[in-house]
């Protein structure tokens, strides 16, 4: 068998890989080294050293039956999962297949299953990578159960992260850029004060937000990686999106070009459509809740007001009055149509630089939304943009433009939805993160002192309140576990 740490790169380049439990393809940098096909989020020349995962090629079957679609299937001898990859062109397809088969057909590579399994486990340990939702048919320490590995490497806590800088703040607490001390990965850590959650009666909405981020997988929806707690705070560790809030970019540009408005709204449309397909209403769509990733793609964040399990009651309707006033839909009962109203407000704001209805008097604003407000467009605005916004801002939810209507609307005629979903369309703006990946965040946040986050105040929670927070602990596909803080009842409870 070859050395698992063989650094000779036999073949490298970009391909798209189908996710383990979603139908989306994610673009990754691949390298064949030794008996393994490693994949990275970015090209290794960018400085990324730790792979996102790897595919054992020893004894694998390479299926090229879908060559017409430039797809390669790898059926691993050691894992139940079949990998599906898509190559950019016919020349690269031939190169990858030849390189893979050179490993799989080599009689000196991985003939013995026991030895191959040892090699896989060693490679996993060396790279601190446990497989991307793979199940070992051999069982043992690499087998997964649910979202966490049976074998735990360590317990996770605030001490596992280096807090680098504050990037956002709200009434709930703050968001910080952090570094995982174990892996070196960068995340966004949302710190929520338990007292604020309790005082605002936000236990259920906080659980709901976490549940959505744990279960939904989509390229334009932020992912949750960890959730843990201290006696004072709940921490949600998410993707760090270094491109900054879309609201910040809108302020800088004053208004977006047609190209930018079309691109960003199309990506967010796909995120909202995916939520709706999973019976979730978002209910708080606005530029402040959309953040650009390092490549310039729009990502939906903040699910604190989202509603799940629509079909379980009220006939797919929810009656809670919530959201940002300028983006609220008219009417009492809100189904999925409420998000398409907010989507229309957002598209208008992208193109005009402001919401269509506004008043310092909240009641007057609601009146404008309900009945009196009229849409105003400049003569220079493209007819298809006017038509899209007008049909989205229909006060009757029954006739308001729906998902199918949006997909087929002339405003999006130039959008290839399949390519957009695969992130194969180049964004109109690529963040420059070469020297400072917080440059797209407001300095009122980034100038804050981060040291106060390490201060722990004694809890004053009842046993039931403590148990509510305890149930929120979560680790996503990683070899770590969560240990809740001890319950120390307050004398006043």
TrEMBL record:
Region annotation (Disordered) ranges: 468-493
Entry-linked Pfam families: PH (PF00169), Pkinase (PF00069)
Kinase in keyword set: yes
CDD domains hit by this protein: STKc_AGC
Record: residues binding ATP: 194
Keyword Phosphoprotein found: yes
Compositional bias annotation for Pro residues: 483-493
Top-level taxon of the source organism: Eukaryota
Domain Protein kinase: 161-412
Record keywords, A-Z: ATP-binding, Kinase, Nucleotide-binding, Phosphoprotein, Serine/threonine-protein kinase, Transferase
Residues annotated as domain AGC-kinase C-terminal: 413-484
GO molecular function per UniProt: ATP binding; protein serine/threonine kinase activity
Domain PH: start-end pairs: 8-105
PANTHER family attached to this UniProt entry: RIBOSOMAL PROTEIN S6 KINASE (PTHR24351)
Record family assignment: Belongs to the protein kinase superfamily. AGC Ser/Thr protein kinase family. RAC subfamily.
UniProt-recorded name of the protein: Serine/threonine-protein kinase
Organism name: Acrasis kona
